[in-house]
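User: I'm curious whether this sequence folds into something compact or stays loose and floppy. Could you predict its structure so I can see for myself?
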Amino acid sequence: MKRCPTCGASYGADDNFCEVDRTRLVEVPAEVGIASSAHPPVHCPLCGEGVLEADGYCSSCGRRAVSNRPTPPLVPVGTQLAGGVVVSSSAPDEYLVRAPGGAALLVVLGEATEVEREADLLERIGGTGLFPGVVECGVDAAHGSYLALAAPPVDAKPLYEVGPRHTIASAVGLVRALVDAAQVVEKIGFAWEPQREDVHVRPDGTPRLARVRVPRKLGPGERLDARVVVEAVGATFVPVPAIEGPSRAFRLFMPHVPLPGEPGSTVEDVRREIAAVELEIAPPTDDGLRIAGICDPGLRRPHNEDALAFATGMTHGERWSVLVVCDGVSSSTHAEQASTIAAKTACDALSHFARSGDVSLEPGGAAVAQAIRAAHLAVCAQGIDFQGADPPGTTIVVGLVWRQRLTVGWVGDSRAYWVSANGAELLTQDHSWAVEAVSRGEVTADEAMRAPLAHALTRCLGPLEVIDPDDPTKRISEVSPDIRARDLPGPGWVVFCTDGFWNYFSPAAQVAPLVRSAGGGGSGSTPARIARKLVNQALARGGQDNTTVLVYEHR
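Assistant: Here's the prediction. I'll summarize afterward.
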């Protein structure tokens, strides 16, 4: 067997250089003992090619995975270990031990290479701040190699026990402290992937690390992936308290799914994101506006193809409000341009109608329909060169509130809901294959949602709707919006959204409790809080698509 003298990784007899840092390997005497020789090799579940080393890192892809090697038997309470007596155990390789002088120690059992590497890092840090001090690194005759560390303070509780009791501000502060710790580890030349149980929190919110688990030596030019450090504790704050915070904070705590070729996040990258979150975590205030919205890219999309726009004002002493939400057709080109142009054009057109005073003289339905047609013409007029691919297209849902009445117009599958103390109602009907197939009696609703064409649109705005794909110079149809008007007899909320939200909460009966619970109800349920919570709920369910929610409060 051979071992890397720099990072401690073990290799076969035929290997000559370390795959991590390219250091020449050295022969290991048989009596030293290598973790991989004690048990059959375990193939990496992430890449399927490499073999997991003793510290859980793959010899091929370099990522850390959970090993399925047998765990050692528990050391019974009262047993002598590392010169002290076992008081309790949190895992088969971690024990709280009472030393002869009464000091509490955390004793970690493991392979010699693992405990020596952890001891080396902590000794270089010096046991200050977040990090535990090293008491001893040695070998117990009965239980093998061990590392004895100063135990966390008695008043420090594991993060998984107290995490949900944090506020957004304290949770972000704790993450910042861990990123600061990661920078210390990186400066010494190590990578670090903490586990949630390694983090303890004191009553004042100060974090304390029980240990720095299996650090890995960084290769030449390699940077520590600080996103991994955040993810180690982020899930503790989901859904509470993250669900009540800004979407950017929610995304900070959620597991990150990297896009192909996307590099890891450096300490500087994560610090910038934390700084941006800290600017947003102040609770929203009631500034007199009755409308608020969030347009979030979601967790799996490289671009945000959703758009929203709104306006409000007074005409003849009465308030009017305009709401617009659009969702660019993802299969088309320049979908983000189409949705942005459509949202702005429709909002401007309908706002002009309201400000002119015509809102008190003419039916709202005709104005809403005209605003949608104007948006359609604006998208078509852009002259985007789609080079043989599908031309731009977007959905749209537009609303005008005037004198206790809401007029809604839509094309596509972006939706409008009305939620009040009496219940909830879906105000729109999707222009999609699924809805139309069910209405024709061809399939059931469940069958339609499982079909490959479930989300295929039958109407949209832009050239995608009106250009014949076989003859780009030929127009085959004009946009035809549906219009609906509804009285708003009492207090409630109008919710406009894209399918990035309603895919997870389609029935109005599911939307209603989310709206009512935002901010605890009453004066706390501002449109901003409701929009935050609804978007965060979609992210918590997977965030597969761009997600937009626009909320109007009717009083």
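Summary: The chain is about 30% helix and 25% strand. Confidence is low (pLDDT under 50) at residues 29-39.
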